[in-house]
Amino acid sequence: MPPPPLAAGGEPPLIGLLRSASGRFALFFTAFFAAAATAAAVVLWWNTAGSLERQVDSAIRADAAALVERRRDGAADALVAAIEDRLALDVQNESLYLLVGPDGRKLAGNLESWPSEANAEQPWIRMPLLRDGAVSEARLLRLEFNGGHRLLVGRDVAEKLRLRGLLSEGIAWAASASAAIALFGAFLLRRALEKRLLPVYGTAEEIAAGDLTRRVPLSDRDDEFDRLGRTMNTMLDRIAQLMEGVRGVSDAIAHDLRTPIARARNKLEEALHSARDEEALRAAVEQGIADLDGIVRVFQAVLRIAEVEAGARRAAFAPIDLAPALADAAELYGAAAEAREQHLLAELPAALPLVGDRDLLMQAVANLLDNALKFTPEGGTVRLAAAAAPGLLEVSVADDGPGLPPGDRARAGERFFRADAARSTPGSGLGLSLVRAVAALHGGDVVLDDAHPGADPPGLKVTLRLPVA
User: Fold this and answer.
1) Has residue 343 got a pLDDT over 80?
2) Are 183 and 177 spatial neighbours (Cβ–Cβ below 8 Å)?
3) How far apart are the first and last CA of the chain?
4) What is the pTM of this model?
């Protein structure tokens, strides 16, 4: 698959490059590399060309200081002799001297006449120099003595200038090579980034085309791109799971609600054609309304579960004490248990601090108690217990009913799922779905186990585990 075009809609290539993240990374790499090369060139220049100039100035300054001492010890003749000695020993022919008297007449040195540049205010002079028919450059220091004598001490820096020119040329070539290397490195960096992102592009395009089974391929490098790919794959798995849930809910609604809707319609149609009197017709209509109310409650339960799974209720989280709410639920369902000749036992601590949605948690506990009372036989016992552990809070409801086979426990939280033993009892199979959704919203989970292991019937114990923080 070819990489995406750099410039779309006919825009300039540079604009397209800047719009591309890989292009921006490459340009940043180039700029950073160029800045590093520039810094290296500056340091090299300072340590070479700058050092040469400093050495020349230091040599001139030392030579001038020695001549000043000679002038202080003797007359102008001593200074003339010192200059002649220095010129005689100058094998490289780089030293420059000129001593003139008060009348401007040359007394000693290898410069022909006093240059006009030496009349400036600054003692240091840089001036062109013609020697042996070739143009050179001189670096001079002007000294003035009592009595009107003036002295120029300097060096011919032509050789230093040639060396500096070679150095500048070398730095220029090095800078050009560095720029070429930086651009080539930026090109390779951009190609590498695009190559690592191409699987993501391809996967996204195939998913957009309808193949939801595609996932981003991963390498064995475990780098940032692999972590991005794993995150995207986890997201795609979650989306696929939610879509599968939506399809399952749609199928379950179509299957489970078709029967009560058809039954309500048949009853109303039968009453319409065969009702003997107004009282019979009214009873049929009331029964139809009750059936439709049950269907509405199923839809409301489905919508509530969807709302909880979407996290829309997280804004209602607040610090609460669950113990009083559980005590109220135990009192309410205790009366219902007595009416069924059952027993409800509550073992609750004095306080259960938690951060969560009180209404949703109580709805979940109510669903568990309602299921427990529904499946517990007459004379049986339902137990509501709660306990707090470090970082965890557990609320459990246990009954004396037939229990749930291990094979059905994994599906107990699916919407509209009902075990074989529960098909003869009223209900829609949404109670545990809501409990699992509420637990997931609070960062917890639901655990199903036998209430009386080894007994017959074993009963069912459902534990809602919630993190305290």
Assistant:
1) yes
2) no
3) 48
4) 0.47
